[in-house]
Design brief:
It is built from 17 helices and 13 strands. Helix 2 links the parallel strand 2 and strand 3. Helix 3 runs parallel beside helix 4, helix 10 crosses helix 15 and helix 15 packs across helix 16.
Length: 467
Amino acid sequence: MEPSSKLHRAHVLILPFPAQGHINPMLQFSKRLVSKGLKATLALTVHLAGSMQPDPSSSIDLETISDGHDLGGFMGAESIEAYQTDFRDVGSRTLAELIHKLDRLGRPLDAVIYDGFLPWVLDVAKQCDKLGVVFFTQTCAVNNIYYHVQRGLLPLPLPLSEGSVRVPGLPPLKPWEAPSYVYKLGLYPAFYDMLINQSTNVDDADFVLFDTFYELEKEAVDWMSSNLWPLKTVGPTLPSLYLDKRLPNDTAYGVNLFTPTTTSTVSAWLRRHPPRSVVYVSFGSMADLDPSQFAELAHGLALAGHPFIWIVRSTEQHKLPRDLMDSIPSEEALILPWCNQLEVLESDAIGCFVTHCGLNSVVEAICLGVPMVAMPQWTDQPTNAKFVEDVWRVGVRARADEAGVVWREEVERCVREVVGGGERGREVTESARRWMEVAKAAMAEGGSSDRNIDEFVEKLVSRASTE
């Protein structure tokens, strides 16, 4: 029998960083590659593979690599440093074993597509004579900053108050608008090393891909493409149902670290509210808000006077101010441990998204035309928030005090500004709708990202057939 790999134009292994916000975009990109005639195999760590399964209709195989000494995955490791060391050392060995196993089984790989957080994967791919494709899951702007820091072109520490940070292809940034690991030098050194070192060997990659779309970051893309690498933007990486609707059955990401509340429950609650009246609040899968911030946020939402859905993970719900929450009628507040965020944002009832500004959440809001209140917490989120307010003009930023707390009055002000029907609210709502159309056009047939994916596939197939 002819090996199954011969039925496809090329075979790629997809290796994401083991976190929800990294797996989702790489899995969605894999679905696009499958639709172009490639075979895709998704490699997850043993811990995650046991609890997360891609949709069978996606035609994506699932394989596992070790994440170290059964550390229980990224979130359960004894320390970030320990996890990263074991993942690199044990993962390098088991990844090489997986590549050789697939070769022996008649399913040889042509390329390894890896998250930029895992630069060691490129070394393994090259040692196994496979093409290496880096996939960056943060914006071009953020990675441009990290590149300049890694190469010594942006001196640290940054000024703590006055002055601005200037990086080619980006607007001037206040120091606190840079990624938190750059502004607050010494904060979580293991994360700092991981993020800054993404570009250590990227010059050796065969292809450089970014989970963004050209129109969203035109200036940064143009500068980086001309001066660093011939990168390609291949986003937004949402399920096709919410973009171009060209991939049958691609209606959801297909993986979840947490079990979402039943869709019908959320939909029924939303249907009881008029258009653009509900505030949706979520800080993603990793944010760890201080109890005092929970209290200020809760009081601010109550003061704003709009019904709200608030995603509070089960492990965080003890931080809620119970007296206040119990006093709010159920029709005015819905607290959930997790939900299908895309289905919520798509609802006509949603008028505002209070978000930590993780890139996936920001792009989802843009693609569904929902204006934002930005409450960034760490890593790339302050830079994303800067672009949300000042560059894309699809939201407003809540200002924190010197201790990093956003007070209830500021929460109230921002929500009222976006949802209240005033001039600023109309401006960001209209801007969000315009960006929604641009985002969808990028992934539609002939759009900027669609063309880039086609070009990437053709070049990969050509390179694979000659090596």
